[in-house]
Design brief:
The protein has 381 residues and is mostly helical. It has a domain of 94 residues. It has 17 helices and no strands. Helix 7 runs antiparallel to helix 10 and helix 10 packs antiparallel against helix 11. The longest helix is centred in the N-terminal third of the chain and has 36 residues. The radius of gyration is 27 Å and the shape is flat. The termini are far apart.
Length: 381
């Protein structure tokens, strides 16, 4: 997604104005005063200017991504880039004295030496490099495999993530220094939070596979479930380490802090994950595979899942969804997982021209009104 910000490029504005001076317009003119030929010429020159600006932005974005990736493999380079960007945004642009910057830098020494901060910083820079590249691509082909490896790495972190991984990449000091806020923040098909495994799958990985490689969906869902489960175990282990050696009062304070945390870490609480999140992930996988891969096989798997989870708190909700799929209102559930994969928050395309989900050979495109015998859920008499 390329964003045109003319106010940041006064030289380009001057070029555009110079391009229309030949029109020799009088002092006060309106659009109606321009002849059709003059208007056509003006639009032509502005289109050329827009193309030049987009090329400039693309080069800037690619350059920033290269810088981020280079710094993501070395803690010293990552810290150096962080300090330089912080200086640009918080001191140079605000015309603050160098003495203030040096005082801030010296006050951050302990944080810069912290292994947890260094690891999180390098991970963030790597994700920002992917973000810059993805914003320049029409499709995710070139960034898909590195993104899959990146997500797997998130579930294998050795230190608790620093807060910089929990905020939108569009609000980081790196994005501000390189004017990337809109490029990253306005990309509806890209998860802005570097540590959000769930969001990366929901907004980027799974939609891409539905469009391009539906046969790979099952493996992607299995990897996602494995990674989120591993993340839960890691966080639980870190919680235990925090409690080690604490007295009774400290234990209570630490436990209260752990139980009250929200956001991504709160969503991966061990008890909530086991009771609600994990079964919901398995159910969502079956629904996705039903719509995009194989209706018959996954309808049978969904029936078995329901039989095994009849006492689950969400069993009634799941049962209603399954009933809707095989005999209720046609299409309403399928649209949640259709290949067009609209970005979160957008309105799905349900027009007659919208692409239907692929149907395997031998399977019908709809299950509406079909009996369980016809679907193969029970043997026909």
């Amino acid at each position: 997604m390329k964003v045109i910000l003319l106010h940041r490029f006064p030289g380009l504005i001057a070029t555009a104005l110079a391009g229309i001076c030949w029109l020799n317009l009088p002092g006060k003119m309106t659009a109606q005063d321009l002849t059709p030929d003059q208007m056509a010429t003006l639009h032509q020159r502005l289109e050329s200017l827009k193309k030049s600006l987009n090329e400039h932005l693309s080069t800037r974005n690619t350059s920033a991504g290269d810088i981020f990736m280079a710094a993501s493999s070395d803690p010293k380079k990552a810290i150096e880039l962080y300090v330089n960007c912080y200086k640009i945004v918080k001191f140079d642009r605000e015309n603050r004295p160098d003495s203030d910057f040096r005082a801030w830098r010296d006050s951050q020494k302990n944080r810069f030496d912290d292994d947890r901060f260094q690891e999180s910083l390098m991970i963030l820079l790597r994700y920002m490099a992917f973000s810059c590249k993805a914003a320049e691509l029409e499709e995710f082909d070139q960034v898909f495999q590195p993104l899959m490896e990146y997500v797997d790495g998130l579930s294998r972190m050795e230190e608790m993530p620093d807060g910089i991984l929990m905020q939108s990449a569009a609000r980081t000091i790196f994005a501000q220094a390189y004017h990337l806020e809109k490029l990253i923040g306005d990309n509806d098909n890209w998860e802005p939070v570097a540590y959000n495994i769930e969001g990366i799958y929901d907004r980027s990985i799974l939609p891409y596979l539905r469009r391009k490689k539906p046969e790979a969906l099952e493996n992607a869902w299995d990897r996602r479930i494995e990674q989120q489960t591993r993340l839960v175990a890691f966080l639980a282990e870190q919680d235990k380490k925090q409690m080690k050696g604490a007295d009774r009062d400290d234990e209570r304070r630490i436990r209260d802090r752990q139980e009250s945390r929200g956001g991504i870490l709160g969503a991966h609480d061990q008890e909530t994950f086991a009771l609600i999140t994990l079964p919901t992930l398995h159910w969502s996988k079956l629904k996705d595979l039903y719509v995009n891969v194989n209706q018959q096989a996954n309808a049978i798997a969904m029936l078995k899942f329901l039989e095994e989870n009849l006492k689950h708190p969400k069993a009634e909700e799941w049962f209603g969804e399954f009933e809707e799929m095989i005999g209720g209102t046609e299409g309403s559930l399928e649209r949640q997982y259709e290949n067009t994969s609209p970005a979160p928050g957008s309105t799905p395309d349900v027009s007659e021209n919208s692409a239907p989900a692929p149907v395997p050979a031998g399977a019908s495109k709809s299950t509406k009104g079909k009996s369980k015998e016809q679907l193969g859920l029970v043997p026909a008499p």
